[in-house]
Amino acid sequence: MKRSTDRILTTHVGSLCRPADVLEGILTKVSGQPRDEAAFNEKVRQGVIHNLKMQAEVGIDIPSDGEVGRPSFAGYVTERLAGLSTTTEPSASSAMNYPILNEEFPGFMAQYNAMYRKIWMPPAVPLSLVDSAIERTRAERVIVTDKITYQGQAEIKRDLEQQKVSKEVGCPKCHTANPVRTPYCAKCAEALTEPTAPCAMCGKYNRMGSRFCIYCGNRLR
Ligand SMILES: [Zn+2]
Ligand SMILES: [Zn+2]
């Protein structure tokens, strides 16, 4: 674990926006259609790299993978834990299981329940695929059928490898490996990150991760 005695380190927990092609892969699997696993894993890997870079660039000390490849809380649990089974309950409602909210705010919850599964979807994802995934999972319920044990060793290994690989970024010009947060290549000074907002003193653009403006010396953050 990364620690510091000088300052409070920042981290991020939870999902970050998944790229549209990754969402499409997740929904394909959830709706029971065949998926090219190698192509999907590569898209997830690219998504994780993108998320790690963005977190590093805004100064997150301990970035996360942004849960790019995980379908949902429930899907993640059944993938990683043994002793659970998925059953179907055909009469199940597709509404979120918030009985008190449904009772107290029926108007709001009717609107929310009608859109909460689709509201996150970028327009690039076909609506028919979203509907088919919703219909297939609507009646699914996870129940405990055996002793709970951890079975996700292979998956956690893959997750950790993806994070390890992507903590370094290759310079596009000279191919030297630099840590992800580095604004300029240590060997050839090629820019490695996106531009920052313009410097408040001189108006010029630096690179994400820069602490001082390289043109006028103004402190950027
Ligand atoms: Zn370089
Ligand atoms: Zn400046």
Structural class: alpha+beta
Distance between the termini: 26 Å
Kindly state the number of beta strands.
4
Mean pLDDT level: 84
Q: What are the distinct ligands in this entry?
A: zinc ion
User: Could you describe the largest sheet, including whether it forms a barrel?
Assistant: 2 strands, antiparallel
- Helix content class: 25-40%
Total domains: 2
Question: What does it look like?
Answer:
The model has no long low-confidence stretch (mean pLDDT 84). Helix 1 (20-30) crosses helix 6. Helices cover 37% and strands 11% of the residues. The relative contact order is 0.13. It has helices at 20-30, 37-57, 73-80, 99-104, 106-115, 127-138, 153-165, and strands spanning 81-88, 140-150, 168-170, 177-179. It has a two-stranded antiparallel sheet. A two-stranded antiparallel ribbon has the order 3-4. It has 2 domains: 20-166, no CATH class; 168-221, no CATH class. The protein has 221 residues and is of the alpha+beta class. The chain is built from 7 helices and 4 strands; from the N terminus they run αααβαααβαββ. Bound molecules: zinc ion (2 copies). Residues 171, 173-174, 176, 185, 187-188, 190 line the site of one zinc ion. Residues 199, 201-202, 204, 213, 215-216, 218 line the site of one zinc ion.
